[in-house]
Amino acid sequence: MNRREHSIIEGWVGRGNRVLDLGCGDGELLGNLVANREVRGYGIDIADDNVIACVKRGVNVIQSDLESGLAGFGDHSFDTVILSQTLQQIHRVETIINEMLRVGREVIVTFPNFAYWRHRVQLGVRGTMPVSKTLPYEWYNTPNVRMFTVREFDRFCAARGITIVDREVSSGERKVTFAPNLLGQLAFYRIRNNRSG
Amino acid sequence: MTSSPGSVGIVQAQKMRFDEPLPLQCGRSIAGYELVYETYGTLNAERSNAILICHALNASHHVAGQASDVPENIGWWDNMIGPGKPVDTNRFFVIGVNNLGSCFGSTGPTSIDPATGAAYGASFPLVTVEDWVDAQARLADGLGIERFAAIMGGSLGGMQALCWTFRYPERVRHALVIAAAPNLSAQNIAFNEVARQAILTDPEFFEGNFIAHGVKPIRGLRVARMIGHITYISDEQMAEKFGRQTRPDTKFSFAPEFQIESYLQYQADKFSQYFDANTYLRITKALDYFDPALSTGGDLARALSAATAKFLVISFTTDWRFSPARSREIVQALLDNGSDVSYAEITAPHGHDAFLLDDPRYHAVVNAYLDRVAAERAR
Questions:
Q1: Which residue has the higher pLDDT, B376 or A103?
Q2: Which of A185, B93, B103, B379 pairs as cysteine with B43 (C-beta 3.0–4.6 A)?
Q3: Do B344 and A58 touch (CB under 8 A)?
């Protein structure tokens, strides 16, 4: 994650908030949020190496499988629930989004945009599955099981009455405002449930 | 005999005497008592680098290194504690303490009751996890330790570490709660009860006064230990270690035939020689009674709400005595309270015993956590 990605998320997290970071990896993002936004943060990750890395960093981490859900967490027990570049690796997308919206007052989701123009060229012209900085895997070793785009996530939210509080699309260190589904590599969504106001 | 690299070497057990009576949860109090302990490493000038190790059912204060009297007697957590080990005695002052009611030197049922001049035996009170923690706190007072850098234990030892955090919140910076549970399940209590019945119904138990009769309820202790051992190991580990291996010469008899039978009998023989039946009964009861959420209507989060420590909770996937789900209850309560907590669920085949074994991921987590503890400035 580059500095721009960190700063987008940091800008969306209130000072002193309770934050849950799903698929927190080595805890870098959460560590920054604790240092810069004074959040009370917890990460969840399943990989032993990531758990050890988080503990080394002094970041709270809970070793658990996201696919088994967030059953233990109370409704709105967190201000912000973050799922950073992990949604594409999750089978039960709807379940995890619903669970995040239940547990958090606000949810931040980031994902690689499969409709980025270079990806389109690879698939449309060369006839190969896209491989890029944001999709760094070959078809046979990718952990990604959901391939979707900025447009599709917009539709997904609209169909479920999920409010998009903020959306930002970036390409490298650059913010993309024109034709985001074509020119954007990474998408950042700040969403909440309509029902919860 | 030279000590292996990373060993604290030869250690001498120490003893502290307490003359102020200790009030116990059962309503009685113990007039005067002694606690046996060992220490490793050096207490720093600020007295801020102390780690207390709490022991489980059948262990003692001899946590690391070689006992001075019997050098081949290696501490029960020697793979965890020593110079350069996860609990690094180069930077921490580590204390192993033998609990009240035990049979390894601290005052217990085998000790002489000054009131009668004979062994306490059956008259020794039933002690609880809270009582142990209170006694440990007095030991800390005696050693001049106001606040521990960390308190750590596995199984029943983990329960003591947990208990410290809400009973003496200001005295614990970090708690490492390993392979523990917030209370015993009905199944856990059932196993304990079978073990107790084995002892209580042994004809040589004499209602706990067997010392006066010059005997020991060896048969009861043997069965109790066998039951315990079955719950410490996972099904898969038992299958891998023993399977259905047999000794052909004992066929069609009740002599140990399957390897697992020989193993259990060997463990039972060993244990029944050195362990006291009254102690065993009391420790299993202490396990059964431990239930911090009892006073809060089952609300564990509220029971732990006084805790200010940071936590590392660890469980092992194949532990069916205190399964990962039980550790997750502790984690969830701490999360609900907004306490700092990390939780590692170690994939290990060994069952409950895994907490005593040398698993690289397990030790890496403890090591990483204690690195942070060492780096923190004492507040």
A1: A103
A2: B93
A3: no
Six-digit token string for A182: 């074509």
pLDDT confidence of residue B281: 98
Give the span between the Cα atoms of B101 and B111, in whole angstroms: 9
Judged by a CB distance cut-off of 8 A, whether residue B342 touches chain A is yes
DSSP-based three-state secondary structure for A22 = strand
pLDDT digits (tens, 9 = 90+) for B297-330: 999 999 999 999 999 999 999 999 999 999 999 9
Partners of residue B345 in chain A, C-beta under 8 Å: 63-64
d(CA B362, CA B356): 10
Q: In the beta sheet, which residues pair with residue B344?
A: B314
Position B2 pLDDT exceeds 80: no
B185 is catalytic: no
Average pLDDT over all residues of chain A: 94
Residue B10 contacts A where some CB pair is shorter than 8 Å? no
> Both tokens of residue B324?
């990962």
Q: Alpha-carbon distance B189 to B68, whole Å?
A: 37
User: What's the per-residue H, E or C state across chain B?
Assistant: CCCCCCCCCEECCEEEEECCCEECCCCCEECCEEEEEEEECCCCCCCCCEEEEECCCCCCCCCCCEECCCCCCECCCCCCEECCCCEECCCCEEEEECCCCCCCCCCCCCCECCCCCCECHHHCCCCCHHHHHHHHHHHHHHHCCCCECEEEEECHHHHHHHHHHHHCHHHECEEEEECCCCCCCHHHHHHHHHHHHHHHCCCCCHHHCCCCCCCCCHHHHHHHHHHHHHHHCCHHHHHHHCCCCECHHHCCCCCCCEHHHHHHHHHHHHHHHHCCHHHHHHHHHHHHHCCHHHHHCCCHHHHCCCCCCEEEEEEECCCCCCCHHHHHHHHHHHHHHCCCEEEEEECCCCHHHHHHCCCHHHHHHHHHHHHHHHHCCCC
Instruction: Indicate whether B350 pLDDT > 50.
Output: yes
If you measure CA to CA, which chain A residue comes closest to B316? Answer: A63
Pair A119, A130: CB distance under 8 Å: yes
**B130, B25 contact by CB (below 8 A):** yes
| Nearest-neighbour CA in chain A from B225: distance (Å) | 33
CA B216 to chain CA centroid, nearest Å: 24
- Give strand pairing partners of B93: B50
**Within an 8 Å CB–CB cutoff, is residue B332 touching chain A?**
yes
Query: Is B325 in CB contact (< 8 Å) with chain A?
Result: no
pLDDT in tens, B111-147: 999 999 999 999 999 999 999 999 999 999 999 999 9
Q: Do B328 and A40 touch (CB under 8 A)?
A: no
Q: Which one of B316, B362, B365 makes the best mutation probe of the A interface by having the most chain A beta carbons within 10 Å?
A: B365
Q: Which of B345, B347, B365 sits opposite A55 (nearest CB)?
A: B365
Check A60 against B341: CB less than 8 A apart: yes
Residue B202 scores a pLDDT above 60: yes
Instruction: Locate the chain A residue with the closest alpha carbon to B345.
Output: A63
Those residues with Cβ within 8 angstroms of residue A68's Cβ, 6 or more apart along the chain or in another chain? none
Residue A90 DSSP class: -
* Distance to chain A for B231, nearest Cα, Å: 25
